[in-house]
Amino acid sequence: MYLPDFEYYAPDSLKEACNILAQYGSRAKVIAGGTDVLPKMKQDIIAPEVLLSLKNLSQLTDIFYEKGNGTIIGSRATHNDLVNSPVLQEKYLSICEAAHHMANNQVRNRGTVGGNIVNAVPSADLPPILIALGAIVKLVGTGGERTVPLEEFFNGPGNTVIKQDEILTEIILPDQPFTGSTYMKFGLRRSGALAVVGVAAAVVMDGDICKDARIVLGAVAPVPIRAKKAEELLKGKSVTDGFLEEVGVCAAGESKPISDIRGSAEYRRDMVQVFTKRALKKAIQEGHC
Ligand SMILES: Cc1cc2nc3c(=O)[nH]c(=O)nc-3n(C[C@H](O)[C@H](O)[C@H](O)COP(=O)(O)OP(=O)(O)OC[C@H]3O[C@@H](n4cnc5c(N)ncnc54)[C@H](O)[C@@H]3O)c2cc1C
């Protein structure tokens, strides 16, 4: 399996990058880590005439905290950059853990958070925890920049609101009062497996009382979805083991899974129930984001 011929650009500025994307339109494709783009080209699934690499836009790899704006993750940060980031280890350990359980070390060294998002694969691991933590994405194009809540970014499998000439530059996590968060993935193997079900939870606890919660389900709908009825059920309640069971049942009812080679719809629904309870329990008990 050889790569087909293509033209290659690696501009030094975002402006130049967006201009190239605008010039070539749908004949061009952004490449970041290439862990998705290159296998698809080798398998003849896609055949872009132009690859636009982000590799010289080094500012897109930064992960930092900015008072007033929150935590900023550059879209070109790799999964291992997330795992090893001191800022994320201090503020959002749940993101480090989610990244750590993805793929294998080679893919974690190349694959980027931006690629994981723009790919818009329903089983992707990072969108659920980022949505649970209220992430906003920054998109830069020839017409300027705009921000979109990550929750509103996905239209369907492989389909997002990003325009042809836009590049996802940053993921912004505004400060929130969460007391704990986690992402739990159920795959068919312990490592290197895609999610059959992924559940992210972020909670605001006051003693035993859950003041606020976000539950995001991955791999059980065309896009990552919030289990809003389950979130409402939790709010203002004293949390017990039996009650979390009930919340899990509610979240399972909100999922819209399909049957495929990795599991039946019915099995996935059952796993949503189990993993929602586990994820909430971990987010509540461990008390770190
Ligand atoms: C062996 C293997 C195991 C994997 N395991 C997992 C796993 O466990 N969990 C998981 O979620 N995924 C997994 N993946 C999928 C993939 O590695 C990830 O989704 C990865 O994060 C993609 O990032 P990338 O930088 O390599 O993307 P690329 O291949 O470079 O790009 C992917 C898509 O995003 C676009 N794009 C990339 N960056 C930008 C940007 N900044 N702005 C606009 N468009 C952009 C590209 O044009 C392309 O359409 C796996 C892949 C492989 C090969």
What does this structure look like?
This protein is an alpha+beta fold and 289 residues long. It folds into three domains: 7-53, Uridine Diphospho-n-acetylenolpyruvylglucosamine Reductase, domain 2, CATH 3.30.43; 58-173, 2-Layer Sandwich (Uridine Diphospho-n-acetylenolpyruvylglucosamine Reductase, domain 3); 180-286, Enolase-like, domain 1 (2-Layer Sandwich). 34% of the residues lie in helices and 27% in strands. It contains eleven helices and 15 strands. The strands form four sheets. Strands 4-5-10-6-7 form a five-stranded antiparallel sheet. Helix 2 (37-42) links the parallel strand 2 and strand 3 (50-53). The chain is globular. It starts with 6 loop residues before the first strand and ends with a helix. Residues 29-37, 39, 54, 75, 102-103, 107, 110-112, 114-116, 118-119, 124-125, 162, 167-168, 194 line the site of flavin-adenine dinucleotide (FAD).
Strand order of the largest sheet: 4-5-10-6-7
The CATH architecture name of the largest domain reads 2-Layer Sandwich
Compute the number of strand runs. 15
Low-pLDDT segments? none
